[in-house]
Give the backbone structure.
Amino acid sequence: MNDHHRCLLTCLAFLGLTACGSRSHEGASSQVVVLVNGQPITAAQVEQALRSEEPPASGADDASGADETTAQVVESLVNEQLLVQGALEQHLELDPVVAQALENARREVLARFFAEMNLYPKETISTAEVRSFYAAHPILFVDRKRFTLRNYSFEAIELDQRLRSELEDVHSDHDLHNLLDKYDIKYTAQTESMSADQLPLDKLSEFEHASVGDVMIATRSGGNAVLMSITGIQGDSPISFDRAKPYIESYLSNVRNRKAVSQYLEKVKASAQVIYAHAPDPRHDPGQIAVLSAESMPTGLMP
């Protein structure tokens, strides 16, 4: 065993002792795990980084795997500290671009922690809620499928009632291609393979009963419409409830948190003075809105 690995194992043992020892959590979290050129990395930093890792599979009891994850996190923090030290040696914090990025990060952190401490519901997601979601979406778990899609993206204004009505007669990708050409619609096309959990949740029921040749109209984004032509459907390995549980919990928690933030913003905007200078009012142009970080939470369920 080399000195590097021996040091990491010492860090792991220390973290285990601080987690189980009799000292206060605050005191344990402030303990130094490793020094990098005299600068400390604390147990609190390691714990925070570990919390950002993907949740382990439910029921797993793999101590060696947990130790490996912790070792990787400690090593990542060491590498990060070395880069930070290099930046500070060059006084990069004084660079206008870097200073603006730091201020943006500060604002994001303040907004996120305000939401976490004041808006997010404190109740945990119940097992009953998880089971209900698992049972309601067999395409994601028990009857899992993978779809090959040919996506056609174009300006949403082109998706008028005339085109929508003719989509009902489209039964293949070739038909869709000809229809778009018929109306001289300028589009970009891309083929991709997607598992069910990568699809928009509001389209899952449609995909669950879809066949090859069907066309789905995706949610408009950035002023574009997307037509998804199904060119292939394959069965995928089912996912057990125990394996899916931590991901469903995380997803349901994110949905609940987004709703809490949305309700709060709707309330405070009613009395806030918001003046848009020399720019369109984003309330009349949703594409212009920069949404709070809670709105950009991941919605995919499985890694």
